[in-house]
Design a protein that fits this description.
- This protein has 3 helices and no strands.
- By secondary structure, it is an all-alpha fold.
- The longest helix is centred in the last third of the chain and has 25 residues.
Length: 71
């Protein structure tokens, strides 16, 4: 499940296991924020829409870069 995957990913970076390690703290906060985004339906929908918009922009850029075929 998502929760189990989150725990396995976050555990090595937990602040109790890494006191004073700011890099581990930042990584733990990042993973925690990502988890909460994925399990919250409203935030997940916003994330998915932003991802779709980004994919559409990239696809449009690729289409513009393709040279025209002249016969």
């Amino acid at each position: 499940t998502d929760q189990r995957a989150f725990r396995m990913k976050a555990l090595p970076y937990h602040t109790d296991k890494n006191p004073g390690n700011t890099m581990a703290e930042r990584k733990f906060k990042y993973i925690n924020e990502a988890y909460h985004t994925l399990v919250n339906p409203v935030l997940r929908d916003e994330y998915d829409r932003a991802w779709d918009d980004d994919d559409n922009e990239k696809q449009n850029e690729e289409e513009e870069e393709e040279p025209e075929c002249r016969t």
